[in-house]
Amino acid sequence: MKTHFQYHIKKRTNRSIPSIGVLKRTLSITDEEFDSFYTLIANDDAYKKVSGHFKSSGDERLVYNPHPLVRKIQRMINSRIFNPKKPKEGVVIWPKYLYGSVPNTLKWVDGKLEVFHRDYISCAKNHCLTKSILKVDISDFYENIHWQDVYEIFNKVFKYADDVSKALADFCTYDNKVPQGGLTSSFIASAVLHDVEPKLVQRLHKKKLIYTRLVDDITVSSYTKNYDFTLAVGLIKEMLLSKDLPINEEKLVISNHSNSSTLVHGLRVNFKQPRLPEDEVSKIRASVRSLENLAKDSKYRTSRDYRKSHAMCMGRVNRMQSIGHNQAKQLLNRVLKILPLPSYQDIITAHKLVYRLEKNFENDKGTYSYKRIYNLAHYELNLLQRSFSSHAKGLRLRLKEVRPNEV
User: Fold this and answer.
1) Residues 6 or more apart whose Cβ sits within 8 Å of residue 61
2) Residue 221's beta-bridge partner residues?
3) Fewest beta carbons less than 10 Å away: which of 62, 137, 340, 405?
4) Maximal C-alpha separation, the chain
5) Rounded distance, CA 239 to CA 328, Å?
6) pTM of the model
7) What is the pLDDT of residues 349-360, one digit of tens each?
């Protein structure tokens, strides 16, 4: 008996947004904010370029920081259209071959509610124990997604009215392209191939090939050793060309890894479960030892540099734990024993943050920036608690009185 496989991106409900007025209410934006957005676009103030981001090739990566109003609108598009909390399943049904920014999916299995994860680990798991692998990277993916592509997502997938789809496309693009750094950009990137990718995946499945896409990284694998991927490469190039998306030829990799350690999304897949490369495990252990040596200096342990080092080390150990490595728990316990400690300057900083929240509570409690400062104050108080518990207790009582509205 064949199992059902969903190839297309679909809406879960028939509910639509029939007009600009309904769109404004859906996104909780005022007439003034709607008009202000187009003023920002006209004055080229909607985004600012962020320097200092580079590709692996050494070329600068175009990353943009949205204006606070643009950020607010895009955040609402994400939370009200792409990934709303209610219903829990979300408005969009995403195919199982898409991973990355796509939300996790809830499903019933043998009477139990389970989560179908969409992270890079779950993506790599699809290719475990395969014998041949093809990896294709889409070059400059975001900046090659155009306004018309975004319009068609809202018009054809969500079936919104023309003027609504045009407005949403305007909200999600900059200079007629999808900006890297935009809050909606990852969802757009996942959905942009909605009309051409299903047919490709179906054809590959007929060849008994496994297909996944993690944003701009396409992986195809086969359980056949030394599989000839010529047809698959041609079909993928044809699909991407139809959307004016170029392939990064330098990153096109074909590997027969039955006796090697080919990586998919940085993980070894020649096992039943994805594993970290052995050299990365060694580096993580070394970073923990290095952090322990740094922590011996009590003064340095209160510094900002130590906090950065600790955060980086914790991130590496958490990655190790997410893979299920047997040494992860031990290393995590070691890192947790040497948490950063506060300095007297942190007491001053915490007082300033709480005072700022109290001062701006009435006017700003519903804004994203207020919520960001509130979360920062919470972080500072958690830090103070480790050495200055009485200060932290008093400030926490004040902080409870200035909780932000849901944003």
Assistant:
1) 53, 54, 55, 180
2) 133, 210
3) 405
4) 68
5) 41
6) 0.86
7) 999 999 999 999
